[in-house]
Amino acid sequence: MTTITIALPDDRLLKLKEMASRFGVMPEELVRVSIEELLTRPEEAFERAVDYVLNKNAELYQRLA
């Protein structure tokens, strides 16, 4: 297993600690579980969201190009 270190602003760290406390877990565990959820989320849902945004803003992107 590999360890990753990240920097968080103080206000975000405080919020992370508060959320972890509500769930009864350590902040590190909450982060790990959140990353697992992100990585196992179906790519299809992400692709649908990207397609929606690109289609919705297609005219704007054309004008900016």
Describe this structure in words.
- It is built from four helices and no strands.
- Helix 1 crosses helix 2.
- It has one domain (10-64).
- It has helices spanning 10-23, 27-40, 43-56, 58-64.
- The chain has 65 residues and is mainly α.
Strands, helices and their partners?
Blueprint lengths: L9 H14 L3 H14 L2 H14 L1 H7 L1
Helix pairs in contact: 1-2
Give me a quick take on this structure.
This protein is mainly alpha-helical and 65 residues long. It is built from four helices and no strands.
Strand content: under 5%
Total domains: 1
Total E-strand runs: 0
Low-confidence stretches: none
**Helical content band:** over 70%
Question: What gap, in angstroms, lies between the N and C termini?
Answer: 44 Å
| Morphology call | elongated
Largest sheet: none
Give the C-alpha Rg: 18 Å
Query: Which structural category do the helix and sheet elements fall into?
Result: mainly alpha
Contiguous helical run count: 4
Order of helices and strands: HHHH
Mean pLDDT: 87
